[in-house]
Amino acid sequence: MMQKIRSAIFFVSMVVSAIxxxxxxxxxxxxxxxxxxxxxxxxxxxxxxxxxxxxNLSYEVEGLENLPKDSAIVFAxxxxxxxxxxxxxxxxxxxxxxxxxxxxxxxxxxGLALLKPVAIDRxxxxxxxxxxxxxxxxxxxxxxxxxxxxxxxxxxxxKMRRFGFGGAMLAEKSGHPVVPIxxxxxxxxxxxxxxxxxxVINIKIGPPIESASLKASEINxxxxxxxxxxxxxITGQPEEIVExxx
Length: 246
Fold this sequence. Notes:
This protein is an alpha/beta fold. It has one domain: Glycerol-3-phosphate (1)-acyltransferase, CATH 3.40.1130. Helix content is about 45%, strand content about 15%. The protein has 9 helices and 9 strands. The chain has helices spanning about 1-25, 35-40, 40-55, 80-90, 110-115, 125-140, 165-175, 185-190, 215-235, and strands at about 55-60, 75, 95-100, 120, 145-150, 160, 180-185, 200-205, 240. A 7-stranded mixed β-sheet has the order 1-8-7-2-5-3-4, sandwiched between helices. Strands 6-9 form a two-stranded parallel sheet. Helix 5 (about 110-115) links the parallel strand 3 and strand 4 (about 120). Helix 1 packs antiparallel against helix 3 (about 40-55), helix 6 (about 125-140) crosses helix 7 (about 165-175) and helix 7 (about 165-175) packs across helix 9. The protein starts with a helix and ends with a strand.
């Protein structure tokens, strides 16, 4: 019961802080991307800090030495909302591949647009891939890291979805390395749930996959294999591979 109360306190605080912070974020519009990012990412940092205070949920990172000096494409395990906050605390300035509809959410979406996300229309097929390749290359060439959740949706603990080809195709075309990241946040902050479990989330950052001489299928294969092995190491049990729906 106490953990439910703590989780409810965190959830209410997250929503209220977003309502307060979003209009302030819009005021950062005249400034550079770097300045906007520093300010807007404070909301993510606040939520990670407040999560530890209210729900006794923290994290530890292994593999920071693997991060390349220049911009890279991150292939991150997607099991929770948590990683959308935490990656802003761990990695260099970044933006994300996301659904275009999110930018239409009042205040929240407008603030998100200030961080120059790669916003794609998933229903447009090949057009969505072209958007990802064109906008993603601009993002990387400008020195921003690009966060890709190649599973495409949050997966329940113990399951892993076959990776989509968009992120790997971008890596092949751009030549930027892919950094695989695994974590077990889904066990502590389950999808579709307000309840947060106390503990320590484990994050593993893998060696960069140099994509310059690889095809998209080979990049995906290496990233999938590394993340699956890392998840087994973190959780103690193998991931069940789920095929993508056609």
